Amino acid sequence: MRTMTIQITQRQSNVLAFIRARIERDGQSPTLEEIGEALGIDSVSAVLKHVRSLEAKGRLTLEPHRARGIRLVREPDPMDADTLELPLIGRIAAGEPLFSEVRVDRRLRVSRALFRLRPDYLVKVVGDSMRGEGIFDGDLVAVHATPVARHGQVVAARVGGDRFTIKRLYWKGDMVRLLPNSPGFRPIDVDPTEDFAIEGLFAGLLRGS
Fold first, then answer.
1. Residue 18 pLDDT > 90, yes or no?
2. Same domain, 92 and 172
3. What is the CA radius of gyration of the chain?
4. In a domain, 77, yes or no
5. In this predicted model, what pLDDT tens digit does every residue of 33-59 receive, in sequence order?
6. pLDDT at res. 95
7. Are 166 and 90 in contact (CB under 8 A)?
């Protein structure tokens, strides 16, 4: 069975290649400043954003508070087709949307058979608005990363640019509504003027991990 890999951008590929070359040459990873200088990236914060994205996509890890704390992740064994190693990248709201940033809390190795779609990452559920879907507070939801979803699917969505929530998608013409499935919770009507994006589809869950 072929192993699927989360796509990275050309810039992220350049960053990863430079890190790999420096580790092979020097036996240690470069600093963020050295990466920026070598690749013509003006700010350390921009370099850090690329490194964090590579971490979320499973290509490396970043040890906090260390100048040379980047570590490359071992390439997956193509023979190990029955398990997946998924990053847990924060929290998702089953209630009012949560402000969110991408960070890798830890990695979990799980059975591929648990999921209806091939998941790319896990997020921890906060809230009870999706209990009717069998999604409870504290569950780890698996997300299949895609910007495309159909009416009626359960999606991970970003509202207002940086608020992350899981709901059932109601889409009719220009109207987008995110529907909870639990008493006491109201739908979220997406304002056409605010940023809105489908981050992925619900692929399954791990209970109370």
1. yes
2. yes
3. 19
4. no
5. 999 999 999 999 999 999 999 988 888
6. 59
7. no
Residue 81 has pLDDT above 80, yes or no: no
- Same domain? 44 vs 112: no
Q: Confidence band (pLDDT; 50, 70, 90) for 98?
A: low
Q: Number of folded domains in the chain? A: 2
Residue 98 shares a structural domain with residue 181: yes
- Candidate list 13, 43, 167, 182, residue with the active-site label: 167
107 and 177 in a single domain? The answer is yes
List the Cα angle 176/180/119 in 5-degree steps.
85
Choosing from 100, 111, 129, 209, which is the catalytic residue? 129
Three-state DSSP state, 88: strand
| Helices and strands: H and E segment counts in the chain | 3, 12
pLDDT band at 80 (very low <50, low <70, confident <90, very high): low
Whether 55 and 26 share a structural domain = yes
C-alpha torsion sign, points 63, 67, 68, 72: positive
Task: Copy the structure tokens of residue 105.
Answer: 């809390």
Q: Is 167 a catalytic residue?
A: yes
Mark which of 49, 72, 95 sits at the end of a domain.
Answer: 72
Q: Tell me: do 95 and 68 sit in the same domain.
A: no
Q: Three-state DSSP class for 177?
A: strand
Determine what percent of the chain is predicted with pLDDT higher than 70. Answer: 87
